[in-house]
Amino acid sequence: MTMTPEQQAEIDEQRAAPRETLRTVSEGMEKHLYSAIPVLDHGFVRVIDYMGDDAAICQAARVSYGKGTKSVQNDEGLIRYLMRHWHSTPFEMCEVKLHVKLPVFVARQWIRHRTANVNEYSARYSILDREFYIPAREALAAQSSVNNQGRGEGLTDEEAARVLDILKGDAARCYDHYEEMISGDGQAGLARELARMNLPANIYTQWYWKVDLHNLMHFLRLRADAHAQYEIRVYADAICQVVADWVPFAWKAFEDYRMGAVTFSAQMVACLRRMLAGEEVTAENSGMSAREWREFEAALRG
Amino acid sequence: MTMTPEQQAEIDEQRAAPRETLRTVSEGMEKHLYSAIPVLDHGFVRVIDYMGDDAAICQAARVSYGKGTKSVQNDEGLIRYLMRHWHSTPFEMCEVKLHVKLPVFVARQWIRHRTANVNEYSARYSILDREFYIPAREALAAQSSVNNQGRGEGLTDEEAARVLDILKGDAARCYDHYEEMISGDGQAGLARELARMNLPANIYTQWYWKVDLHNLMHFLRLRADAHAQYEIRVYADAICQVVADWVPFAWKAFEDYRMGAVTFSAQMVACLRRMLAGEEVTAENSGMSAREWREFEAALRG
Amino acid sequence: MTMTPEQQAEIDEQRAAPRETLRTVSEGMEKHLYSAIPVLDHGFVRVIDYMGDDAAICQAARVSYGKGTKSVQNDEGLIRYLMRHWHSTPFEMCEVKLHVKLPVFVARQWIRHRTANVNEYSARYSILDREFYIPAREALAAQSSVNNQGRGEGLTDEEAARVLDILKGDAARCYDHYEEMISGDGQAGLARELARMNLPANIYTQWYWKVDLHNLMHFLRLRADAHAQYEIRVYADAICQVVADWVPFAWKAFEDYRMGAVTFSAQMVACLRRMLAGEEVTAENSGMSAREWREFEAALRG
Amino acid sequence: MTMTPEQQAEIDEQRAAPRETLRTVSEGMEKHLYSAIPVLDHGFVRVIDYMGDDAAICQAARVSYGKGTKSVQNDEGLIRYLMRHWHSTPFEMCEVKLHVKLPVFVARQWIRHRTANVNEYSARYSILDREFYIPAREALAAQSSVNNQGRGEGLTDEEAARVLDILKGDAARCYDHYEEMISGDGQAGLARELARMNLPANIYTQWYWKVDLHNLMHFLRLRADAHAQYEIRVYADAICQVVADWVPFAWKAFEDYRMGAVTFSAQMVACLRRMLAGEEVTAENSGMSAREWREFEAALRG
Q1: I want to staple B115 with a disulfide (CB 3.0 to 4.6 A). Which of A271, B215, B274, D264 is the partner?
Q2: Chains interfacing with A (3 or more CB pairs < 8 Å)
Q3: Which amino acids does the record list as binding dUMP (chains A, B, C, D) (predicted)?
Q4: CB neighbour list of residue B85: distance below 8 Å, 6 or more residues apart
């Protein structure tokens, strides 16, 4: 990540001036405010604002006049109960606003999560910076031979070098041309809304993204998952750190009942029961397809 | 509104303990936090939490690193521009959480606004209080003879007395029976989730309601409007006061471009142009239906 | 359910006039169109319109020009894969519109599912019918002693008789008064929007409810579940029949991977692995709370 | 638009086989089904499915058992009333599913409309076609000197030729490199999810997009507007034709009360009243900013 001195100064200034509030304060979150967590080569995640904490989840679940929290133990128990039984609305009572810098092809996946508020840097109005995501050597991988939408083995050094040359060269050339088109010697220059179409999908964009905790956890469950593309997963991972500091009870419940949990199908549960009763269950007598059986075995292995 | 001493003590305690935060603070909103604005005979609106202020709208619109605001004049101009040109996403960057006590029939209208987060007091889990909305004498009105879904003239004293007697009597009797059913001498009592079906729609319920500023203003435009039912309009009016103190620039723009604005149809605009050119335009030569013409005349009269 | 001869005639007329279309047709759904499935004493569910079928799910998942389906076996496999791996968007490509008649307290739970379109019969504009939900004898149960928001044992005959007397008596009296208030001898009568506040929550209302298949299945998972209140569960059960006929592959996948599936927490999965390895796992050495352990044992028992 | 013979054959096959249905049928929409309306150089809009028609809007507004429509005149009047008074839910009762082929930079604007269902062609799973949007000569324009996010004057021939050379050259080179990276002589080839990052934003993608009529009209109001970027406006214009044939009454009301309507601010309405009373109103005595006054004058001029 390349943070300019001006940008760093703006962040420092924001962090230097605490003010008084009567609102709920999460100490774990205050320490994150405005600081940038680096992601990929030029990206970041920054917490701009937040609302609520673990206690606010309990307060809403209890619809209370006062703080609505009881003993710490009671509160954690309530949060775990709510998570386990899919009571999602109390988690919607917390909200976070992030400033994210990310490659366009990551932004295109991210925006599919519709229950959020977004303000993106406008390439109709402004000129995009010359910043492109160029994968680290170890992130380069071949198309998976077993999973049609994933990565398989790493590339050879030679192949990797060839790929990196292409990505760097095309990015540089396309950006040079973008600049040439909008500058237009002696005239207004091509409209920005048109010129941007020449920029490849690894250029960085930025947005403000605001979301409630329930929908954020849904995003994290899908995007911090091993099946998610690496380039969005690292953003999800960065946000996981933030959430763990912000709402520690909710985070622990989320880890236990969502991230680390396993959903077994009706057929899988039936097999489990037979296995626990001492029966020998095989792919053949399981009633599952070959693919489901493989997934079942993998889940039991962990 | 009947606030118990215990509830008032909880509110006082919350207001007594300011804490430090690095977040944006709206002074106008801090003064509202936790205090209850009375609405109808037992209802209220209380601000529980908020995120953002006028500056946060500008900051998001500019996707900035720092505060993102410029001069006060620039910020107000930007907010007015955004409102006038239907740029809704920057307004979504502010959020508010309210605790509302309201009659069930008002809650049923309110909940139709879907883009919000809600936790309602559960009548499956808890016992509802004996609190019913009984309209003030001057709120009682006859069915409108011109508008199929509104009120017309006030009731005579005799008629009003009869209505109030009915409402009070039925509320008291239904609640007595509710209590009898759930108490059940010598046994567990009828399940609460069943017993509640005996309660009329003027019983009070409570909820936590969280919404972003854009969707809140949409709610206010519809519900603080003269066509809205009086009993929801008074809640909307109370929230209008809160918003005016929270985000004064956005509120002023909202008043000018939404609440006080008038949308003229294509036909109406054509007539306006003819009128300004000195032509005599009448219902007959206007190209509008009788009803549209009446609405047009009313809009011009104000 | 009391369907008037006029209503039945309208339904018969709609079913009598097939027309030609180029759209996808689900034969299983055509047979349901307009017919009312009775629910509770006066309620029903009627299919008014639908869009898509199993093939449409595959077509969207493949973003195809033509029908987008391959062999029947391939299609079923794809649908099961999508369901298993939480690919929700293809299921959003099917849509259904229902006409539902239901008690108000059920409507209040139902409306919490926000991702749907609703038009409810307006009690500001129209007069509600004299129809109330009076539970069948066997549906009356005491408050559960173990679950704070559920039902426990059935009532004694005497207790049940007392409850039914109350419910019938209060419904009748409240409705009589509603009629008296709105009729108002010699004047316009109390505005309907006010008079309705006297009606208890077991009065029936009606609405058109339109929802996509993904969100419908989410609704069914929560509301056809054993923890849902009986009075909404019977509506969910009725809709389950409809979905099974409409999109049989999706329905089977939904049964296997959602309704019949079990989600085990991280701790539960760890215990499962130990048990399958032959270890004796007890509540004490499980790392779970007492409540979680009970839920774990229940899940394994089935 | 380049439609392959295979694709055309698939479309012809779909249009050749009408089936019987009991559902509402819109004749105006049946004629559009599956046929592609060309947009830009390679894009299109195709209607894949629809639900409802003008009568369905009235039926839902009336929550009726039968067809719910009365005389044609009544129905049109009701639809105009609903539109004029912002009753949006009846319009949500119609739904349409489109297959759209569009450049990525257009898709990025389009997706910001969140209340819709989308399945996009996956560039993780599949290989994108070599198809890029290259603007027609007359669509090339300079950055506007008055509007920061729009186009101004056309380019000179020389400038236009230079721009087209750049766009064509970079698209071809980037695509060549994309192919080289994923083919990878003698190995699996770079993962598709990585290789796609080299493709510029004028490459075409495709999706299935499903939306209700209310939200579609909101999309059209913003995107068929003169301020929208030309490249998305032509898609909105194509969809306008479809809607006009599908629901002619709703379309006419939409034209009169939304597209052709003008919203005047509180200040503008006050000025209008003064002008109609014969007063001379100028920028100076109007109480508006210079910018608002210009917009007011423009609205009155038409």
Answers
A1: B215
A2: B, C, D
A3: 109-112, 120-124, 196, 223
A4: D227
Rounded to whole angstroms, the Cα distance separating B98 from B254 reads 20
List, in order, residues 6 or more apart from A87 with CB less than 8 Å away: A61, A81
Contact A265 C276 (CB under 8 A): no
Sign of the Cα pseudo-torsion (D121, D122, D125, D131, in order): positive
Main-chain phi, psi angles of A24, to 5 degrees: -60, 135
Helices assigned H by DSSP within D26-140 = 27-30, 54-62, 72-84, 104-110
Closest chain D residue to C213, measured at CA? D117
Q: Quick check: helix, strand or coil at residue D81?
A: helix
* Helix count and strand count (H, E) for chain D: 12, 9
- Tokens standing for residue D218: 């909101």
C-alpha–C-alpha distance, residues D202 and D102, integer Å: 9
Assess contact for C201 and B203: CB atoms under 8 A: no
ipTM above 0.90, yes or no: yes
* CB C100, CB C209: distance < 8 Å: yes
- Strands D151-154, D141-143: pairing is antiparallel
Query: d(Cα A181, Cα A175) in Å, to the nearest integer?
Result: 10
**What secondary structure does DSSP assign to A35-100, as a single string?**
PEEEETTTEEEEEEEEE--HHHHHHHHHT-SS-----HHHHHHHHHHHHHTT--GGGGG-EEEEEE
User: Backbone phi, then psi, for B32, in 5-degree steps?
Assistant: -85, -25
> At a CB cut-off of 8 Å and minimum separation 6, what does C74 contact?
none
Q: Provide, as residue numbers in chain C, all residues whose Cβ is less than 8 Å from the Cβ of A84.
A: 265, 292, 295
Domains of chain C: 5-133+202-259 (3.30.1360.170), 138-201 (no CATH), 266-301 (no CATH)
- Give me the phi and psi of B20, to 5 degrees please: -85, 145
Q: From its phi and psi, is residue D184 left (phi > 0), alpha (psi between -120 and 50) or beta?
A: left
Print pLDDT tens along chain D (302 aa): 667 888 889 899 989 989 999 999 999 999 999 999 999 999 999 999 999 999 999 999 999 877 766 777 799 999 999 999 999 999 999 999 999 999 999 999 999 999 999 999 999 999 999 999 999 999 999 998 777 778 888 999 999 999 999 999 999 999 999 999 998 666 679 999 999 999 999 999 999 999 999 999 999 999 999 999 999 999 999 999 999 999 999 999 999 999 999 999 999 999 999 999 999 999 999 999 998 999 999 999 87
The CA distance from A142 to the nearest CA of chain D, in Å, is 4
Angle CA D151–D156–D158, to nearest 5:
130
Residue written as token pair 């009296």: C173
* Catalytic entry in A19, A223, A274, A301: A223
Burial B235-270 (b: 16+ CB within 10 A, else e): bbbbbbebbebbbbbbbbbbbbbbebbbbbbbbbbb
Contact B219, C170 (CB under 8 A): no
Say whether C291 is catalytic: no
Q: What is the number of other CB atoms lying within 10 angstroms of the CB of residue B62?
A: 21
Least Cα separation, residue C213 to chain B (angstroms): 19
Task: Return the DSSP state at A122.
Answer: P
The span from the CA of B177 to the CA of B171, in Å, is: 10
